[in-house]
Each structure stands twice: as C-alpha cells, then as structure tokens.
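User: hey, got a sec? need GlcNAc-PI de-N-acetylase family protein folded
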Amino acid sequence: MSHPVSEKSALVVSAHSADFVWRAGGAIALHALQGYQVHVVCLSFGERGESAKLWRKGNMTEEAVKQVRREEAQAAAAILGASVEFFDIGDYPLRADKETLFRLADVYRPYPAPLCPDALPARSL
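Assistant: Yep! Here you go:
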C-alpha cells in the first residue's frame, strides 16, 4: 500500500487489528491533530484470539470474521485520522516469514530515521 511519508509521519505496527485502537489510539489521534500523517499496519485481524464474540454469533467463517475486523479497523483508523493496511499473516500463532519481514521492511524504509546525536561522535572513537 502506498501512503505519503514526510518528516511529520508516524508508523504504528499492530499485532491484531484492534490493538492500535486500545494501545495507541490517543497517541494516534494527537499526532494526526498535530499534522502528522499516521499509518497503521495490522499484522493480523485477530480472527482467532481476539474475536470470541463474533464466533459465538454462529454461522461465522474465518473470512467473515476477518471482514468484520477489517471494517472495524478501517472505521477506527478514519476516526483517529490514520490510514491503515492489513498484512493478514494469521493469528494464534502469529508468525512472520521472510516475505512478511521484507514486506514490513518496505513499509519502514521510507520513514525518516530519528536523529541520534551520539552517532557522529561515536563514529570517530
């Protein structure tokens, strides 16, 4: 997924599609209000470990649970002022293979690295 990256960009990587809301929602909203372009990557929809209420509804399939979780995450991201993308690498266990790691590296790569004031002096030691 292509998303704009600038000096005022923030990236959030979330294990499950609801995690970014519960664990970083306030920070995401604050950064968006401050003009940051916030992008969220959800590694999993949480279709197994995070979706017990959906499964109890009956007649649910894994794809149906994922679709509900996708829609919830998209709505939450829009409210918080962020863009969102989904890797759909599965849930319980959450495992990242090489392809997933390279894909995540491609997402990280455009983001500006934070300035580390010790890097230049340490190089000359």
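Quick note: The first strand starts at residue 9 and ends at 16. Let me know if you need anything else on GlcNAc-PI de-N-acetylase family protein.
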